Amino acid sequence: MAATTQTTQTTRTARGFGFETATLTPVHWTAVGLASITGIVHLYLWYNGGMDLFLLAGLGYFGAIGLLLLNVYRPALYLAGIPYTLAQIGGYVMEWQALGFGPAPEGTLGLTTKAVEIALIACLAYLFARWYSVRRAERALTA
């Protein structure tokens, strides 16, 4: 069994998987907050008689937060989170148009949530770009 070290912020196994927050930056925490907001909104919409897709969307955001905190390979989370969140935005636009309501209404909970999701996509893109540039620099030093 892998050795486990515990501190106030970190529980890590020898292979790098475990509850870990010491390496999270303010941008990570911003992304966690944004994902929490949109996750709560989706669960709220499902609870108030919405489609089961709202439940899946909400649980998906909270699942991603859990994986981030468990130190699962974070670049994969960043890359998966971008199209996942884009799909939520696309689904919102398509749902309103398919139901014959025309463009998505302004000033609604949905539109506010989409703004939060756009900010989340920006955070995820930044986090991946930062990870990639650091990784690239490390490779250049070892080459």
TrEMBL record:
Transmembrane segments: 27-46, 53-73, 109-129
InterPro entries in UniProt: DUF7475
Keywords, comma-separated and alphabetical: Membrane, Transmembrane, Transmembrane helix
Protein name as catalogued: Uncharacterized protein
